[in-house]
Amino acid sequence: MAPLGRPIETPVPLAAGRVGLRLIRSTDAERLRRLLSENRAWLQRWEATHPYGRGAVPGSSPMRPTIRVMRRQLRAGSGVPFVIIYDDEVVGQLSVSEVSGGALQSAQIGYWVSEHVAGRGITPAAVALAIDYLFAELRLHRVEICIRPENTASLRVVEKLRMRYEGRRSAYIHIDGDWRDHDCYAVTREEVAAGMLQRLLDAGDEGRERLTG
Ligand SMILES: CC(C)(COP(=O)(O)OP(=O)(O)OC[C@H]1O[C@@H](n2cnc3c(N)ncnc32)[C@H](O)[C@@H]1OP(=O)(O)O)[C@@H](O)C(=O)NCCC(=O)NCCS
């Protein structure tokens, strides 16, 4: 049974200035494989790994089969695999996972961008777009982002979005070969009545300049 009691409909592409989000598609396979391969040193420390050793090194094999599996999450209603776009080019991924229905109505977000576009405010804008979509289209109530305490760049993303710190979960996710503590941040729909993108734009320099730059 799908967590929300239904499949998730294909999201329309979302955009804010030069930043966009759209559903991943099979034609993204080679571009993503190349980005993942070229960004090994940049990404590895923050990547989820399987505790029992399964799974190939990201970027080491063709991505079409993985993308097919990701897209099945929509039909299963369990997640939404987006790519992040900047100036019409795919530069990273944003994944909605852990979708829960019933009395929770929540989801988690994870993300990465290629090192060559880091520091332009792309991820805060992409996360804001995703959160507004999850609240408005999927009618979720709560979105959560969990980050390793060492990941100062990612912590800046949730700071810019003024997400609420909820606490540390010990040995929460298997990352880069071991169980790692995570600091968890959340936002509920009623906390952002005007929307997350608006909140980011209202933050002035933190959002608007770099978004439209
Ligand atoms: C975390 C991440 C997604 C942030 O994306 P982004 O689009 O660069 O976000 P921002 O532009 O808002 O930058 C956030 C912070 O990154 C740091 N940063 C900026 N450019 C950087 C660079 N070239 N190298 C390292 N860190 C950089 C800065 O601290 C910046 O904060 P600031 O704007 O106050 O200076 C990106 O750094 C990344 O993909 N990292 C590797 C994967 C990862 O950590 N994923 C998240 C797991 S929870």
Index terms:
213 residues; alpha+beta; Aminopeptidase; eight-stranded mixed beta sheet; 7 helices; binds coenzyme A
Question: Could you please describe the fold and organization of this structure?
Answer:
This protein has helices at 29-38, 40-43, 64-76, 122-136, 152-160, 196-202, 208-212, and strands spanning 14-16, 19-23, 80-86, 89-100, 106-113, 142-147, 164-175, 178-188. The chain is globular and about 45 Å long. By secondary structure, the chain is α+β, with helices and mostly antiparallel strands. The longest helix has 15 residues, at 122-136. The protein has a single domain, classed as Aminopeptidase, CATH 3.40.630.30. Strands 1-2-3-4-5-6-8-7 form an eight-stranded mixed beta sheet, sandwiched between helices. The chain is built from seven helices and eight strands; from the N terminus they run E-E-H-H-H-E-E-E-H-E-H-E-E-H-H. It binds coenzyme A (COA). Residues 42-43, 46, 111-113, 118-124, 147, 151-154, 156-157, 160 line the site of coenzyme A.
